[in-house]
């Protein structure tokens, strides 16, 4: 493991509290409008293309589009909130994390294990990436971020990429962050429109709210119960309502 991999694969430690990061950062500049066409998605890299094909074959259309949107939300949020870390993060590692972060919701995995979907999904992602040719460090970084992507909290630290996937998924799922005023405004409305139209939501919030209820019903011990009223919070998502 090299020191460079620590940064490019998103291992840099940051507070697990997103609110603390926002408070430390202070005033954030008005976001620049960007479109999907302005952001490099590394589909020209064989590893990313293979991972994308793997998840597209297994995820529902709703979950696949969500995973693509999360890539763009995270790209903008990272540059706005922690630009020094975002500048060093590999777009390939970030793309792999986004593509695979909900692989645990795929039908063939969702009911075949008693494990929580995010935890099992992280393990499955690591297995798949190693088969596809990822380095061990990259595969482990992706797995760590996926396993902790619902692990919101107050105390302790998390990898930068783990924090970024938390913020990006919350942005898509509920459009707000507890204790952070104006969380939705960290991304320009032009960008929201471009991303949501390029990768349609397909009533994502309703679909995932129902998925959460299924998991909590079938696995009352699951990690998703860590987020109170998650299903209702998604169904009340105002930020993306016009695109639902």
TrEMBL record:
Listed NCBIfam families: cyanamide_fam (TIGR03401)
InterPro entries assigned: Cyanamide_hydratase_HD, HD/PDEase_dom, HD_domain
Entry superkingdom: Eukaryota
Gene3D superfamilies: Hypothetical protein af1432
Protein name: Cyanamide hydratase
Record-annotated HD domain positions: 63-174
Pfam families from the UniProt entry: HD (PF01966)
